[in-house]
Amino acid sequence: MRSEADFATRLRWWRHQRGWSQLELAGRAGISQRHLSFLEIRRASPSRDMVALLAATLDLPLRQHNELLIAAGFAPVWYETDLAAPELARVRDALDYTMAQQEPFPAVVVDRRWNLLKVNQGAVRLVEFLVGPVTPDAQVNLADALVGPDVFQPFLVNWAEVVRYFIRSIEADAAADGTAETAALLERLLSYEGVRPLLKAPAVSPAADPVVPMIFRKGDVSLELFITIATLGTPQDVTLQELRIESFFPMQPDTATILRAWASQCVDCSNG
């Protein structure tokens, strides 16, 4: 969808994206199909409240709600604040607290396109074990690191299974936010060697585990982890709505033992 598209074009695009007819969207929004039709063909102009109603009905993210308002000639209502800004100090504290509670197991904070924003020490230890030290302040995209050939793939035993599931989640993100940037991320991931064929391959057997694990192996060390993803519950800021907290948990007791041992060794080194 073009960024310069007007309100009518955007409204039609989002309705089609959701797979709804005019009648269905009108019914969900509690307005007449006639009025919705007039909005889509520019015979009527929306009020700010109508834009808000349609954005909520279409379940648009805050960023896209703002874009719909701007397209209709109104000022945006949702702020987009830098995560480092003073007014988000309490949120940063909450993120740091959450990641600290996850120790000695890994946890990271990413934005909606999987750019790495925060890590705990458990995540640092895991990455350093697999690929070596990461340059401070390096710009890291976890999607590229997972799907691409040069970072995690050599150590991820079930790379194909994990990536197949992950790409489906990126496809869902692209459909949900409708942005060129997320579409570009998806296309970039699909361009990596061997990825497109994965999506065409059928599942070969019933699932053996309740979740898809990530099985890392380097030398004699094997780590089996699963991931939970958390978001802020009531965001009213674009930045905060797009944050994701990924926490890695051991799938097997041996993995927990190894991660705890790494943390203990680091404590011993710092005390020494």
CATH secondary-structure class of the largest domain: Alpha Beta
Order of strands in the sheet with most strands: 2-1-5-4-3
Q: Radius of gyration, rounded?
A: 22 Å
What is the number of strand segments?
Answer: 5
Query: Residue ranges: pLDDT <50 for 5 or more in a row?
Result: none
Mean pLDDT: 92
Percentage of residues in DSSP E strands: 5-15%
CATH topology of the largest domain: Beta-Lactamase
Largest pleated sheet: 5 strands, antiparallel
Tell me, briefly, the overall form: elongated
Label the structural class.
alpha+beta
How far apart are the termini? 58 Å
Task: Give a description of the structure.
The protein is an alpha+beta fold and 272 residues long. It folds into two domains: 65 residues, 434 Repressor (Amino-terminal Domain), CATH 1.10.260; 186 residues, Beta-Lactamase (2-Layer Sandwich). It has a five-stranded antiparallel sheet with strand order 2-1-5-4-3, with helices on both faces. Helix 1 runs antiparallel to helix 5, helix 4 runs antiparallel to helix 5 and helix 9 packs antiparallel against helix 10.
In short, what is this structure?
This protein is of the alpha+beta class and 272 residues long.
Write the layout of secondary structure elements.
Blueprint (H helix, E strand, L loop, with lengths): L6 H12 L3 H8 L3 H8 L7 H10 L4 H10 L17 H14 L4 E4 L5 E4 L1 H11 L10 H6 L11 H19 L2 H11 L4 H6 L13 E5 L2 E10 L7 H4 L2 E7 L2 H19 L1
Antiparallel strand pairs: 1-2, 1-5, 3-4, 4-5
Descriptive terms for the model:
272 residues; alpha+beta; 434 Repressor (Amino-terminal Domain); Beta-Lactamase; 2 domains; 5-stranded antiparallel sheet; 13 helices; 51% helix
